[in-house]
Write a structure and sequence with these properties.
The structure holds two protein chains of two kinds.
Chain A (H helix, E strand, L loop, with lengths): L1 H32 L5 H26 L7 H19 L6 H27 L4 H19 L2 E6 L2 E6 L11 E5 L13 H19 L2 H11 L1 H6 L4 H24 L12 H14 L4 H17 L7 H16 L2 H10 L15 H6 L1
Antiparallel strand pairs in A: 1-2, 1-3
Chain B lengths: L1 H30 L6 H18 L4 H24 L7 H23 L4 E2 L9 E4 L4 E4 H23 L1 H11 L1 H6 L4 H26 L2 E2 L5 H14 L4 H22 L4 H15 L14
Antiparallel strand pairs in B: 1-4, 2-3
The chains are: A mainly alpha, B mainly alpha.
Chain lengths: ~350, ~290
């Protein structure tokens, strides 16, 4: 009885999330055609989509799998660099921009997934803060490598070198990745429509994963790893599965994000970006995909909306962030809301089985 | 001889990491939170010392003391305003708040002191060096001062936590907060004290860091902060000797990677070593292996 009610509730939430994204798309399209959209807002549409996908994919790791990742921008970086390389390489043969964008995103997702598996196998053996620090380290390593990677393309094929530019390209060749200069001459083929489609695909993937046998296994691991293991759930397999899906989606988002700009450096995807995405997830609520999208959109727009504060805007941003965290965790407010929705399962992946559920019930 | 001089500068850099890592590790041990604003307290300390010594021409020792006092107060204020209301909140909420505090400090510094790099006046005159082995080995005095301060701080802190009443209260709180409270320990005051000590140490680390690398900008503390945090994890987070071992190892690895492999990838190499260590010893070098009870 209780379970059927919760699952109906989840389904409703999922449809509401799809509806929100489509409504957002419709509003923006109408505003755009009637000319009510400022140029700053237009430039932010693709980043909003990319950051939303990043937030939803990280929420899969943090909210559903219950592991803190501080290197999600690393996967974004892998997706951006490999995806753009694919799109540039395809530029000589295929003229259709959407096809190149699609191939770029798929290649970005595949490479990010491969890196996700490679990182995940050793890393997921660790727990809690140690896992977090290793993902942080991994993000920094990826940044270091892309800052020193040179990839060129000419009639003889790809030329790759590390540390210094020894690609020796033919005169007709182009240097796609130029070490610290990053990606040069990116085809700016990312569009708002493609961003919304990617976001919808991400939601379909994540919701189906969460509501499947796999998703229930993953959440069982989050809530109590030992209990899950004892009933025969293969912990490593399911953890790795969720982690890899999360990485692949981040790779696609990175590819989309990069193709909104003409140049992109590896330092764009640093620790601060990983943290920014984590902020979206925590503000939106762990395990709450709609919240992630809203938080990602709001916080991408907020620094621009605060332009009237000019030099104080980042200071105001910081204060808003602290105040929101203090307000949402205020015990008085919390007890008020928990009285309203008692049926909700407490989502507290940080302290599984630490007696927290018991405390809330009192 | 070049090997020896690299080793010494590695230990010196590692000493700075170790002092910063102490702040992380103590706060983690007692409050179970990752204080991401710690790196920015370093920066504030360095700025205070810079203004005291360069602008108002005070002697270096006064500058250091002033920096320590200001950072200690700052640490307590941050703890009271931002972290204390979140004692019962999930770890992630506290983490995000710490990041908010970090942004706040960086941007406040940007507004107050502008983004123009300040040239920090080292606390020991630059160029003062000690030469050994008939001039084959030359060590700058600041390197030795850094290593010496690290040793002194370590001894003082170990004595404090093992012998004094307050130190014992700190250890009790990190072991079990509820039980400590039942034994009559004021848990809140103890946590505040930990923040105060950590922030004071951060000020010293900031002064030493900027004496060795004298460019001072509002983001100066960020990267050393992250590296010291990895150093703390490296040695086993929550353990004071672990912070020393982790910090010094990280410093030595970084300098050797720069000297013998490549400067461009030195950070990546540091982090790769960290990953390998954690895979072999999942709780860090000196960390406690906690067995899970079912």
């Amino acid at each position: 009885m209780k379970r059927s009610m919760t699952s109906r509730r989840t389904n409703l939430m999922n449809y509401a999330t799809y509806l929100l994204v489509i409504a957002f798309f419709a509003v923006i399209t109408v505003m755009n055609s009637s000319g009510n959209l400022s140029s700053i807002m237009k430039g932010m549409l693709v980043p909003i989509c990319a950051y939303s996908v990043m937030a939803v994919s990280l929420n899969l790791t943090v909210g559903i799998l219950g592991e803190l990742s501080l290197g999600h921008a690393g996967f974004m970086s892998v997706g951006a660099f490999t995806g753009v390389t694919a799109a540039v390489a395809l530029g000589n043969h295929v003229s259709s921009a959407p096809v190149r964008l699609l191939v770029g995103m798929v290649v970005g997702a595949i490479f990010a997934a491969i890196v996700g598996v490679l990182i995940g196998i050793p890393v997921l053996r660790l727990k809690g803060d140690y896992l977090a620090i290793v993902t942080l380290a991994f993000g920094e390593i990826i940044k270091g490598i892309f800052n020193n990677l040179y990839v060129g393309l000419d009639s003889r094929g790809f030329h790759i070198s590390l540390l210094s530019d020894t690609t020796n390209l033919d005169p007709d060749g182009t240097l796609i990745i130029g070490g610290p200069m990053g990606l040069k001459s990116i085809p700016t083929i990312a569009t708002f429509t493609s961003g919304i489609i990617l976001l919808l695909i991400t939601l379909v993937v994540v919701f189906h994963l969460v509501n499947s046998r796999t998703g229930r296994a993953v959440m069982a691991i989050r809530d109590n790893r030992i209990a899950a293991e004892s009933i025969g759930i293969n912990v490593t397999k399911y953890k790795l599965m969720a982690f890899t899906v999360s990485a692949a989606l981040a790779g696609a988002a990175g590819s989309l994000f990069a193709m909104n700009y003409t140049t992109m450096v590896a330092n764009k995807f640093d620790f601060n970006t990983s943290i920014l995405i984590l902020v979206f997830v925590v503000l939106g609520g762990q395990g709450n995909m709609m919240g992630s999208i809203i938080a990602a959109s709001a916080l991408t727009i907020l620094p621009e909306a605060l332009r009237s504060f000019s030099t104080y805007r980042m200071l105001v941003y910081a204060i808003v962030l602290i105040l929101v965290m203090l307000a949402t965790n205020n015990p008085t407010l919390k007890s008020f809301f928990s009285r309203k929705k008692k049926t909700d399962v407490p989502l507290d992946p940080d302290e599984p089985g630490d007696g927290d559920e018991g405390k809330e019930a009192v | 001889m070049t090997f020896l001089s690299f080793l010494i500068s590695g230990i010196s850099l590692g000493s700075i990491y170790a002092i910063i890592a102490l702040g992380y590790t103590m706060v983690y041990g007692i409050a179970k939170m990752l204080n991401f604003a710690h790196g920015d307290v370093i920066m504030v300390g360095a700025y205070i010392c810079f203004f005291a010594t360069s602008r108002y021409e005070m002697p270096p020792i006064v500058g250091i003391l002033l920096a320590v006092v200001v950072c200690t107060i700052l640490g307590i204020v941050i703890e009271k305003l931002a972290y204390k209301p979140l004692r019962a909140a999930p770890i992630l909420a506290v983490l995000i708040t710490a990041i908010g505090v970090s942004y706040f400090l960086q941007n406040a510094a940007l507004l107050l002191w502008s983004s123009n790099p300040k040239v920090f006046k080292p606390i020991v005159p630059t160029g003062s060096r000690i030469t050994l082995f008939d001039g084959q080995l030359s060590i700058s005095v600041i390197t030795l001062v850094t290593i010496a301060s690290c040793i002194v701080i370590m001894i003082a802190l170990t004595t404090f936590t093992s012998k004094s009443k307050m130190g014992k209260a700190m250890r009790a709180c990190s072991e079990d907060k509820g039980a400590a409270q039942l034994m009559g320990i004021n848990v809140n005051a103890t946590i505040s004290l930990t923040f105060a000590i950590g922030s004071g140490l951060a000020a010293i680390a900031g002064v030493l860091l900027c004496s060795a690398y004298p460019t001072l900008v509002p983001t100066t503390g960020a990267m050393p902060g992250i590296k010291a945090f990895t150093a703390a994890v490296f040695g086993g987070i929550g353990s004071i000797p672990g912070a020393l071992v982790g910090g010094i190892l990280l410093g030595v690895i970084e300098i050797f990677a720069k000297a013998y492999i490549t400067t461009q990838l030195s950070d990546a190499i540091c982090f790769a070593v960290l990953i390998v260590v954690l895979l072999v010893k999942p709780a860090g070098l000196l960390g406690k292996q906690i067995r899970e009870k079912v």
